[in-house]
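Here is one such protein, fold included:

. . .
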Amino acid sequence: MLALLPAPAQAADGDFSWSTSGVGAMDGLLSSPQSGRCYSLVGSNAPFYAANNTNRTVRSYQSSGCAGAVQSTIGPGEFGHVFKYVKFD
């Protein structure tokens, strides 16, 4: 008999960084973030934009726990607007 166990979460390859100032300085960095985990983007202000230099798509949310509707999506290698909470596919 074969037991089915949940697959372990895969980490995205690469880095995800964000800015709260919008002038090019990055305020935070996630290295190899776990897929399916909700991350809170910390900083003195709300995040403004992000660089997704991972191999996974990231979706951002306004609510903690990445609850509610997706507010923005940034593909691998793309820049875009983000909200405070993000989750990687």
Notes: The first strand starts at residue 14 and ends at 19. The two ends are 31 Å apart (CA to CA). The CA atoms of residues 13 and 32 lie 5 Å apart.
